[in-house]
Structures are given as structure tokens and as C-alpha cells.
Amino acid sequence: MSDDLLLSDRAEGVLTLTLNAPPAHPLSLAMIRALRAAIDAAASDPEARVILLHGPGRVFCAGHDLKEIKAHRADPDDGRAYLETLFAECGAMMMALAQSPRPTIALAEGVATAGGLQLLAACDMAFVTPAMRACLPGVSNGGFCSTPAVSVSRKIPRGPLMELALSGEMFDAVWCQSHGLVNRILPPEDLLPEVRAFARTLATRHAPAIALGKRTLDAHLAQPLDQAYAAATEAMLTHFMDPERVARDKAR
Questions:
Q1: pLDDT at residue 22 in the model
Q2: Tell me, what's the pLDDT at 3?
């Protein structure tokens, strides 16, 4: 898959996607395209019921490939066309991940910075080790992590978000968990086995209900309370009238 930039393994309903461009696993255009293809394929694969996204090592993902960006500064347009393509395709990949009908879980043993933190935050959940760190360093380079902040802002309140985005500093796993960016902090030796066991449990759930539930939840979070209840009520009717649910209830 894209010269092994992204490794794929599927077992017991769990699809594990492993970033494979050590040590930083940067989001090159090729990596973005490999991720998008894998996420899209999983959405229609009945055997891929949960997605684990793993960036192994000291760096989960360091964000955009700055060497690749620098190389395109030699283009006649100083790299503008390349950057337009890069950011458009990255945004589309992040949206596909965030809106996947499958539960998505990030596993991070190390640093998630800039677009790497965006990638982690785009997942439904994140499980990390105590060595995990988070950073939005754009301000330190004369810019601002505007697109990474889109994913992160969906997970944490404005105050902590602005602390991340304006300071450019590194924040530890405990800080990330306290503000809702991380679900669990696990010992390094427990990270993969515990998350895989959790994912296998999720894979036993009724996939159509999960997909509808995720879609409804995402929609009603942005709606007024009355509209949220109306949308959720319609989804509940669909859940309870699902033919499998009806048949199971009648058999009891």
C-alpha cells in the first residue's frame, strides 16, 4: 500500500492501519492518499468493523512532511499548486476518518504534533502511553495550526485549544486526558493488547446501528435541543425496527 507507507492488518473484525514512515511518520501526499484509500475501503468492507490507527515509536505522527513542502518551493509558483492539493486532500482524508461509519481509535506511544495531532483528534477515541505528547507548533514557525485546530476543537474546549495553538508548547498525556483529547493512558506493554481486546468487543456490535448512531450523534451535536431530540428519536425508531432486532426480540 503506497510502497508500504501504510501497513494494513485485519483480524476478528478489526482493521489495524500502521503508519510506516519512521521515525516521524509524516503526512506526505502519498501517506495522505494511502490513508484516504484505506479509510474509504473500510467503510464498505463488512469484515472491517473497527479501525485502529497506530503510529508506533517515539512519534505518532509529526504532521505534514516539511521536506516535501520545501522541495516544492523550487516550483515556478513557489509550491502554491502543490500546497493547494496537499491541504485539500488532507482535509478530505481527515473528514473521511472523522465521518467513518466504523469506530476509529488512535494508538499513540509518542508525540502527536500539528497534523499528527489533527489525525489523532479526528478519530473517535485515542489510547496512549504516558510518553504521549501533544503540540500545535505553527506559531513557533511564524504560522498557525489552523487545519489541525479543526479536529482538536471538536474534542477540547476553547481555553485549552487556545493554550495549545497560541503557545506552541508540548503538553503531556495527563493534560490531554484531563481536557478530553485522550481517553485512556496505558502502560506501554498494555497499549496494543488492551486496545485490540477493546476493539474486538466493539467489532461484535451491530454495524448498521453503530453507523447510524455515529452519524446521528455528529449531526445533533450542532443542533438546538428540540431538533437534536427529533433526530435522535428518529434514529432510535430505526434501531428498534431493525429486522435483526425485531427477530431477536420476538425469539426471546
A1: 96
A2: 55
Residues ≥6 apart with Cβ < 8 Å to 228: 220, 221
| CA dist 5 → 22, 24, 113, 193 (Å) | 9, 12, 19, 23
Residue 76 CA to residue 97 CA, distance in Å, equals 33
What are phi and psi for residue 8, nearest 5 degrees? -130, 135
What are the extents of the domains in the chain? 6-203, 207-251
Percent of the chain at pLDDT exceeding 70: 99
- The type of residue at 196 is R
Burial of 163 (0-12, 13-18, 19+ CB in 10 A): middle
CB contact set of 41 (below 8 Å; sequence gap of 6+):
48
CB 220 within 8 A of CB 232: yes
CATH architecture of 6-203: Alpha-Beta Complex (3.90)
Half-sphere exposure of 25 (CA within 13 A, CB side): 30
Residue 219 and residue 211: Cα distance in Å, rounded? 12
Nine cell digits for residue 201: 468487543
Give, to the nearest 10 degrees, the angle between helix 146-153 and helix 115-122.
20
Q: Which H or E run includes 214?
A: helix 207-220
